[in-house]
Write a structure and sequence with these properties.
94 residues; mainly beta; Nuclear Transport Factor 2, Chain: A; two-stranded parallel ribbon; binds zinc ion
């Protein structure tokens, strides 16, 4: 899916519509020793059938999250694109 480089959207900090720069949000590296991950690893150990997190069916599409940066106050906000896309979202200039 193609997304424009700049969009004019409402900024809650400026309380007015402003031009905002668009960036595709990328996931940070997951820390393997966080509490949730340790808990999950504990659950997967041993017997006891299926557990959450072991998926059999992979999802085909993805709802892409975009980060908008206001050009006036340079604050960031999220913009979730509600179209499920199989193709990678790219930001297009112009
Ligand atoms: Zn703003």
């Amino acid at each position: 899916m193609k997304v424009p480089y700049e969009v004019r959207k409402y900024c809650p900090h400026c309380n007015a519509p402003t031009t905002q720069k668009v960036k595709v949000a990328s996931k940070g590296k997951a820390s393997s020793f966080s509490f949730g991950n340790r808990k999950h690893a504990r659950k997967l150990r041993g017997f006891g059938g299926k557990r959450a997190g072991q998926k059999e069916v992979k999802k085909q599409g993805k709802k892409q999250k975009l980060i908008l940066t206001c050009t006036v106050c340079s604050k960031k906000q999220e913009w979730v694109c509600h179209k499920r896309t199989k193709k990678k979202t790219e930001v297009v200039k112009g």
